[in-house]
Fold this sequence. Notes:
This protein is of the alpha/beta class.
Amino acid sequence: MTTRYRVEYALKTHRRDxxxxxxxxxxxxxxxxxxxxxxVFEPHHEGSTEKMAAIAHRRYAEIMRDxxxxxxxxxxHQRAGTEQNSKLKLLVPAVSKFFTPLLLHDAFxxxxxxxxxxxxxxxxxxxNDVRLILNTAQVMSLVRAGPLDLITFDGDVTLYDxxxxxxxxxxxIPRILExxxxxxxxxxxxxAGYTEARRYYERLHGLLDAIKQSDMPQDxxxxxxxxxxxxxxxxxxSGTEEHLLDYVPxxxxxxxxxxxxxxxxxxxxxxxxxxxxxxxxxxxRLPADVxxxxxxxGIVPTAGRRFAREQLEETVLVTQKILExxxxxxxxxFCAFNGGNDVFVDIGDKSWGVLACQRFYGxxxxxxxxxxxxxxxxxxxxxxxxxxxxxxxxxxxxxxTCNLLDEISxxxxxxxxx
Length: 418
Ligand code: IMP
Ligand code: MG
């Protein structure tokens, strides 16, 4: 039973996104009924491809419109305080709060002109198709509702490749500058936890130098902050020659609720986490170094080694469970996550990080904030918690982040033209 329980539940459910899987399942029906795989070996099939694609397109689009309506109904329930009773909640129990409607029909039409989903005969609408449609639906809704006040970005895999830095040649730089010129505030909400501005400058220098050199007004240049260690350290862009990032003392930015996170509890939680990590290292004979910081503890592979995916997942799940069961883990928010080739436990999480950015800029709402990240699985992923604070977009690479920002710019231009 233990094995079955672990394989079916503990290891699998956190690797699936219920909403995406459910939409994928709905789209599979018209795919099965209308795709024509046999046509590829039949003569004169050219015309039939377009006919098939038109029918599949119509059916997929209808489904997306229906899902859009179910989400609107869920939002109406949220407003009435009865979201537990919505039909969507019954169908997809994992759904939580929607900060805005999602324009799924229009987003599907948009993505179908790029990915030609309806033209496919052998490959049904996939997880990635649905993920990208959801991202487009989210930005369509945000942009059509007026200017986006705040975009927060994760660092690794979202702005630059895992473990790398944001160098001057990174194509995301002009796109972020364009947003800043329009008055959008930027937050970089990363797990990378350093106490000194210099370390963040090293990771982000391409962007920070470009902001300094740009001709945008001085006060716009200051509209970028870095929240490191998920929600632990805040630095503000100064836009001046001497310091490109200024440290903001904790009392100047933390939320009221964070005042109760005592140093004793922080130390106790990190002790429990460190013991759990060491237990995993011992059990699985991991070639690991333990790194203990002021507000984080993690394991990284010894030089030249890598952890297997299963070892990373096992370590995260064991550590998270032990922390959840501990008294201090019930008092203090924490985030245990799989960083691709390391496992870290941080104090706080990205929901607090995003909330702190919103507050720092004077109280920006969740419906006017977008968090872009790569880690949205429900366990062992650190961007997931941002969903509690704002709208989100789930990207899979820095190139997808650029595509998303281009979509925002395109949609914004279309709204301005109207
Ligand atoms: P993110 O994708 O920007 O959230 O960065 C996650 C990565 O930052 C992790 O995978 C680690 O490699 C690295 N990192 C460096 N310092 C810390 C820390 O204090 N806590 C968590 N991750 C850290
Ligand atoms: Mg990341």
